Amino acid sequence: MELPKKYRSICQAIEPFLSPIEFRELLLALCQEKLARLILSTQAILKIGPILKNYNIPMAIGKLRIIQKADQGKGGWSNLIETVYQNDDKPGFYHIYISTQIEKIEVALEAEGNGEYDLFGEILNIPKCCRNAYGNYLHTILKKQNDVTPMTSHNTTSFPPHNFWANIASQYFGYSLLSFAPCSLNCQYSQKISQNTYKLLLKYDRIIAEKFFQMHQSNIIYHEYFGIHCLQNSLWKSNNILTYDPCKILSTSKSQLSTALRQGTCIKYLSQKSFYILNNTEVISAWCGDDVALFLCC
Ligand SMILES: [Zn+2]
Q: Which of the chain's termini has less CB crowding within 10 Å, N or C?
């Protein structure tokens, strides 16, 4: 997978208007790897639309104006669409579809409009195993904040440290090589997609690629309502004790979990859904249940 030379200047022109994750999607679309579907503001659309048009790259704007609702504890991340306005053409956020092949956009719009989510997922290059896992998990996420991320952790049956290529929890810190939740941290198809995306980014810009790579190689604690926490400078002391520097934690929000982590020095891994926080050898808090998901990947 390689970015055609003729598209390099488009990427450089559009990059300032997109987040790293959105930019990753554009790169993949320009390599014909997938259709890119983004939610962008009218301002961003007005900037990138003319650039794409100049290079004859098809882009479609969805008809619905979307108001998203930020998830609790996830630092502005949103998996919930609060309100949808049809055809009112007011400034706001809209779905954007970009592909070098116009037919792909047409099929995607039709599939999404008809609620054919499996076909839509296929156009987005999501592996079959992950699409199936999502279908089975849907009833669980709809009861909460519509976030499928815990599925990847909960379906993982091996012991940490896990393969970092499928570490989707890195997305909450601005960098993820995947646009979908893998069926498990051991999903080989997802790992391959992630590696290929990394190689593509590396050829485009080594510095950006390294940021994605480092974030994937992180130990991340997910809680549905008490934030997502990246334990930087962490190290396995034994097969279930992970030590970390309490001054080097990134948290998406303040909560009783972020406070407890800052009072501790290590975590004791019990399962993908349960762990203790320890200050040296003393247990200071215990966390377990379906709202907890561990992504211990380094
Ligand atoms: Zn999979």
A: N
